Amino acid sequence: MDAHGADGLPSHRSFQSGLSWRTILAKRENFRAAFAGFDFRGVANFDDNDIERLLADEGIVRYRGKIEAVINNARRTFEVVQEEGSFAAFIWLYEPAKDDALPQMRSKSTASETLSKDLRKLGFKFVGPTTVYAFMPAMGCINDHAEVCWMRKDVETARNTLRTPT
Q1: Domains and CATH numbers, the chain
Q2: Which position among 29, 67, 72, 94 has the lowest Cβ density within 10 Å, counted as fewest Cβ atoms?
Q3: What phi-psi label fits residue 72: left (phi over 0), alpha (psi between -120 and 50 degrees) or beta?
């Protein structure tokens, strides 16, 4: 996954903090349109006029702090890409060891806590360990489907064929 594809996921997920997933998923396409398809290169160039436009957009969650965080995070993503080559490569540095990646009913992990802490050190916002944990399976870093879940085998097969980003 390239940095473009990776960026939309944490941005989209940061809006969920404090709200139901149903609310966010119902507005997914509105978010995508409002935030330039979550292309971090475009969002990083948003200015005060864009913030005002987004605050007036009834199709998205209009919380200034989260809107500003997405723009900030796009700028920070650009910096990570310059340093690491891709945002995905950076995220995959936090792939947990096999034993730590076993499926459990949880909302965060040691890996997501570490990644969250490091993202915040880099200036990212609204990237708590629960938000980051929700992002990690979407990136393929973990397979948190229970052993009895019909999706677990498919996800594990996809993970085994995935080339980790470099």
Answers
A1: 3-161 (1.10.340.30)
A2: 29
A3: alpha
